[in-house]
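Lecture 7, part 2: worked example. A protein chain together with zinc ion.
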Amino acid sequence: MAERTSQPCAPGVPIEALRAELDREAEGRFLFELAAELYPICRSITGAGLRETLDRIGRHVPLERHSLPSGTRVFDWTIPPEWNIRGAWIRGPHGERVVDFADHNLHVVSYSEPVRARMSLDSLRPHLHSLPERPRWIPYRTSYYQRSWGFCLEHERAARLPDGEYEVCIDASLEDGLLDWAELVLPGETPEEVLFSCHACHPSLANDNLSSLAVATSLARLLPRARRRFTYRFLFVPGTIGAIAWLSQNAERALRIRHGMVLACLGDPGPFTWKRSRRGDHAIDRAVEFALARSGRKWEARPFTPYGYDERQYGSPGFDLPVGRLTRTPNGEYPEYHTSADDLSLIGPEALVDSLDMLLRILEIVEGDRRYQNTQPFCEPQLGRRGLYGALGGLPDPGARSLAMLWVLNLSDGAHSLLDIATRAELPFELVRETAELLEAHELLRPA
Ligand code: ZN
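Predicted complex, written out as structure tokens:
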């Protein structure tokens, strides 16, 4: 049974300690096994598959469940009818099954309306989707907001279909129901929030986005033990409409978000990619880029664009929240994206746990970053008299510690944060933070 986490903030351990104690092998196994467990479920933006996914995540972390009924207006959108599917197939002229949903849930266009008909190959063709350039892969297609039906199949199979009469069946329903999502809130010392948001609506696709559902679940499982200055909110929402629904119900609460990120595509071995918040220079942008630069991993930062995942909603002009997006290889930039080849072989325990490790590194900065005021700003304080200068026995690099002390004292004018100082001094954040704590203990700094 998962540990209950709704209690008020406990003292907890620093995030650094959580990361140091992480059993990477065991956590990597947990991450991959969770993705593998969720992989076969046919998810969509509504319906039983989405609910089952949230139920299964909820076995590991105590999720709050929310829903809105079909027909509810959420800003300029309307919650669509709920889609559920029981089965679907195409039978060929000789009675053979050409395509069967039971073999792969990507075989049916998500949100296909129910159909039961006989038709010629020519009439069927417009309803078939395949990838000529990737003849063995099944594409992923959706039609959420326009009523239609269709099948997706390997091009090599689509190209070989004989002429004749076909029988098609999609045993699905589009009825008034619910749009579901799940949240987890871990209270901190302040009501100011750190947001993690992931889309939970894709069917059997591993990197996009079971990887991030797993990584977010793992992070949400670890953070209850952490000392938390911020309140943490995890959102598991159907893409686009789920984020819009959440924002429509939480417009006031959203203003408490100080740092946020959309998580996606975190299981492939590609380099980390940070897509900056709309404004591009929020503390979260600087924290992520600093952590990535210091991590020794390959990475890239890109400017915000109004295309992609739910950063589009958090970064819409009415909200303009400090929310960026962390992926490894971004959407659309790996060949397997939105095809049946985005399967469990594309993701691995090492990449998943490495993504988790990266998030913890970022949170170390987010949690530890603050501004101080030097209490002795007129010339340097006499550090030697206080036993602070050159008297730091046992430290591996007292030179760096002394340098950190001088930088922290010089830039602690209430305007520069510890991250600003670490960036400017090109020193490890942890060293700068520990140095500030030491100087605070000697009353040379006070919180600004
Ligand atoms: Zn996608």
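Residues 349-368 form the longest helix (20 residues). Residues 202, 208, 331, 338 surround zinc ion (CB under 6 Å). Keep this in mind for problem set question 3.
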